[in-house]
Specification:
359 residues, alpha/beta, Rossmann fold, Dihydrodipicolinate Reductase, domain 2, six-stranded parallel sheet
Length: 359
């Protein structure tokens, strides 16, 4: 399968490794910076002869890839995705899928019209720990799920934002919830039915005066099935990243995953006692080297299989929109200082410019 990558920045090595491990034929690398592509080729000699493009439209026309991954600034995801879809490509979009409801809907409309597959790159769904937890949800082992919590307790300093000036801006990114925390927000949605009904939230910028977005967000979410979700996300942790954790509490089960990216099962307790807690912890707790984890390769494999067998990918464009929508609803609740009903008719990160002006 012919494959191309648009955007060769910080996360791009994970896409290259995933594509290579899945035997995709890499036919093009696109970035506005030739140096970014050069550094990527230096790191991965196997791709040194792959053609470089500054113009992704020219790459699409010349190479006609069947699958394209988009790993650019978040604010550019939607326009590039729609162009790729209209060129007949299946697409993997780095999170978030877009920065507005209208842009997410444009992607969905184009994909439905063209009959191609679109996956949102929420790779943590493929963690062994998360797969095991969702299996228990699907099997009904929790009984009624009362609530779930997600904690993203990370550290990002000024050097991180200076490395790529689009980070932390409302036009191209958003704040901690949209950039760092949306992976766990997707997991909370996935476990609790992907149908949030109402959210009440507070966000703030306490320690990052040089960015526009939030560095902390706290929210309570009510889902249509009656379960509640609690979101705590921050990049203000002193001394480096602490954890990314997910807990589920049901009438017949309690589970906690934590570690760098929910990759360690810490608690596994069920009334049915079908499995041994310590054995589950050993088998489904997998160490990771960095915050991107090991899920890209599995996400790519799932997408390739979805294309081959004409099915939805596990993290499809609708799930990508749901995660985006919940973050936007959290922003809207904080901005309006009131509870917000979902689904949203329209919302964009641009709606919140000036939210943290202290004057």
């Amino acid at each position: 399968m012919k494959y191309a990558l648009i955007g060769c920045g910080r996360v791009s090595p994970n896409h290259i490794v995933a594509a290579t491990k899945n035997d995709l034929e890499l036919v093009g690398l696109c970035d506005v910076s030739k140096n970014a592509v050069y550094e990527l080729k230096e790191k991965y000699p196997l791709i040194k002869n792959v053609k470089f493009y500054k113009d992704y439209k020219k790459m699409l026309e010349e190479q006609r890839p069947e699958l394209v991954a988009i790993a650019t600034e978040s604010g550019k995801h939607a326009d590039i995705a729609v162009d790729c879809i209209n060129a007949g490509c299946n697409v993997i979009i780095e999170k978030p899928i877009a920065l507005s409801i209208k842009d997410a809907d444009r992607i969905i409309e184009a994909a439905e019209r063209m009959g191609v597959k679109v996956a949102a790159n929420h790779q943590n769904r493929f963690n062994a720990s998360i797969q095991k937890i969702h299996e228990a949800v699907a099997q009904g082992r929790f009984g009624k799920i009362f609530h779930g919590t997600t904690q993203i307790r990370w550290s990002r300093g000024e050097s991180y934002y200076k490395q790529a000036p689009w980070r932390g801006t409302w036009e191209m990114d958003g704040g901690a919830l949209m950039n760092q925390c949306i992976h766990n927000i997707d997991l909370l949605n996935w476990m609790l039915g992907e149908e949030p009904a109402e959210v009440i939230a507070m966000t703030d910028n306490l320690n990052h005066g040089y960015i526009e977005g939030e560095d902390i967000g706290l929210a309570i979410v009510r889902y249509k099935n009656g379960a509640y979700g609690v979101v705590e996300g921050t990049v203000n942790v002193y001394g480096g990243d602490m954890e990314e954790a997910l807990c589920l509490f049901g009438e017949n089960g309690t589970v906690k995953a934590d570690g760098t990216i929910n990759n360690i099962i810490e608690n596994w307790r069920f009334a049915d006692e079908k499995d041994d807690e310590e054995e589950v912890k050993r088998e489904f707790s997998v160490p990771v080297d960095h915050i991107y984890g090991k899920g890209h390769t599995a996400l790519y494999a799932d997408m390739i299989d979805a294309i081959a067998n004409n099915r939805k990918p596990l993290v499809d464009m609708y799930s990508g929109k749901k995660a985006l929508e919940l973050v936007l609803a959290i922003y809207k609740s904080s901005f309006e200082k009131s509870a917000v009903k979902l689904p949203l008719e329209d919302a964009s990160t641009l709606d919140f410019k000036g939210l943290f002006n202290k004057e």
